């Protein structure tokens, strides 16, 4: 009865429920497909060589554990905000704040990486202004309403899937495949390198959380959210494994580790090299699709934090016509556009992975505290998810770990300063 009452209140006073299961799956796919293939594959290969294939499987397994956690928590708390809400209600206010802080700063870095990926594939000589322009344009798309966001994402995902299918055909059919390249998984970075590649590739899988953060805009969230999360994750894992395996088969591992556009290299290695422009077009659309969904998710977490006055309440406003948190949307867009002007792609990926792994570790801890009757999955999965997130996070490049710790420390300082008056009263 409690959950029904909560849902009824949310239904009548907050955001409009417009998204069905298909819409939610498409939003999840739009958040995941493309990031790992076009942005993270190079740094992950540099860390582990052909061991990236093991890294992808590890990242996918961690993502599955986290998906089960997010699914059962989303059923209990079908609200916008994701782990910010779950941590707050299961563990306490400070844990919720840390989760929300980690999500926002980590995904701001992800948005930066995606905007730069799009720009470098589209027009390298004009990368910075083009990246800024793409952020501002997609801010407008999100501002106009979630249903429009879902429609645009459907178009982008369809184009990306078509381009990846062409990549697979061109690379395998081009005559450059060599199965010996799949060996030597431990040669480049050993176990530490494989774990680092898993952390980098996890950057690509984290998009399923967009479905949970849109909890107040999904129809029948108790059924839709768990189903959409697992479907989107399963499809993405199959696509990632297939495309990265083909790429490793067709390109020398040393060249692949230094490639800024590894799928272009895979196509150019064979007799169908004339199809390489298709890869560049696919990268552009993939990056835009991820950027679009990421920005929607960040604004919803910002909205939830503002509604609870953990950040200025001004950001909790909902547009009277479009029914979206328009002030949060605009703030997110302007911040990303500013950061893009000075950011570096690879460091943005590492930092984003660290922050989001911490975010999911908190989600798993929150899931661990659920009562038996609230569980949809075994309790050990929550423990395994939390431990896996921590191990992989601290095997990321040292600069990403240090930067992440410092920014979480800053978040704690802001939290205690902003709540000082509450504690003293």
Note the topology.
Elements lengths: L1 H12 L7 H12 L2 H14 L3 H25 L6 H8 L2 H30 L4 H17 L2 H28 L16 H16 L3 H5 L7 H30 L2 H5 L4 H7 L7 H32 L18 H15 L4 H24 L10 H15 L4 H21 L1 H5 L1
Helix pairs in contact: 2-8, 2-11, 2-14, 3-9, 4-9, 4-11, 4-16, 4-17, 5-6, 5-16, 6-7, 6-14, 6-15, 6-16, 6-18, 7-14, 7-15, 8-11, 8-13, 8-14, 9-16, 11-13, 13-14, 14-15, 16-17, 16-18
3D architecture notes:
- The protein is mainly alpha-helical.
- It contains 19 helices and no strands.
- Helix 4 packs across helix 17, helix 5 packs parallel to helix 16 and helix 7 packs across helix 14.
- The relative contact order is 0.21.
- The N terminus is likely disordered.
What keyword list fits this structure?
19 helices; mainly alpha; globular; 425 residues; Amino acid/polyamine transporter I
Point out poorly predicted stretches. Answer: 1-13
Oligomer: single chain
Tell me the helix content: over 70%
Whole-angstrom Rg? 20 Å
């Amino acid at each position: 009865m409690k959950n029904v009452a909560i849902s009824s209140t949310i239904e009548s006073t907050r955001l409009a429920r417009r998204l069905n299961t298909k819409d939610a799956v498409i939003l999840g796919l739009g958040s995941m497909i493309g990031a790992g293939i076009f942005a993270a594959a190079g740094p992950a290969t540099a860390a582990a060589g052909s061991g990236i294939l093991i890294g992808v499987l590890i990242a996918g397994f961690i993502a599955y554990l986290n998906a089960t956690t997010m699914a059962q928590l989303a059923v209990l708390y079908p609200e916008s905000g994701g782990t910010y809400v779950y941590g707050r209600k299961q563990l306490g206010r400070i844990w919720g704040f840390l989760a929300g802080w980690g999500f926002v700063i980590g995904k701001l870095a992800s948005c930066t990486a995606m905007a730069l990926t799009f720009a470098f594939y589209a027009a390298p000589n004009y990368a910075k202004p083009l990246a800024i322009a793409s952020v501002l344009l997609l801010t407008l798309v999100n501002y106009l309403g979630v249903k429009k966001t879902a429609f645009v994402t459907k178009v982008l995902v369809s184009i990306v899937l078509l381009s990846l299918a062409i990549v697979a055909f061109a690379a395998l059919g081009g005559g450059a495949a060599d199965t010996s390249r799949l060996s030597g998984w431990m040669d480049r970075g050993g176990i530490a390198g494989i774990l680092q590649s898993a952390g980098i590739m996890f950057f690509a899988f984290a998009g399923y959380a967009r479905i949970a953060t849109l909890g107040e805009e999904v129809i029948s969230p108790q059924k839709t959210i768990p189903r959409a999360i697992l479907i989107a994750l399963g499809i993405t894992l199959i696509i990632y494994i297939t495309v990265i395996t083909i790429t490793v088969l067709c390109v020398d591992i040393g060249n692949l580790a230094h490639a800024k556009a590894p799928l272009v290299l895979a196509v150019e290695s064979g007799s169908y090299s004339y199809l390489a422009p298709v890869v560049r077009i696919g990268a552009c659309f993939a990056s835009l699709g991820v950027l679009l969904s990421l920005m929607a998710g960040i604004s919803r977490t910002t909205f939830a934090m503002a509604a609870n006055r953990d950040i200025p309440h001004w950001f909790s406003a909902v547009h009277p016509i479009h029914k979206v948190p328009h002030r949060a949307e605009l703030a997110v867009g302007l911040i990303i556009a500013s950061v893009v002007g000075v950011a570096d792609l690879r460091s943005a990926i590492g930092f984003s992975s660290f922050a989001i792994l911490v975010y999911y570790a908190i989600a798993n801890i929150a899931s661990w505290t659920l009562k038996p009757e609230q569980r949809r999955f075994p309790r050990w999965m929550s423990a395994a998810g939390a431990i896996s997130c921590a191990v992989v996070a601290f095997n990321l490049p040292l600069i990403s770990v240090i930067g992440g710790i410092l920014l979480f420390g800053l978040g704690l300082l802001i939290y205690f300063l902003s709540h000082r008056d509450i504690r003293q009263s």
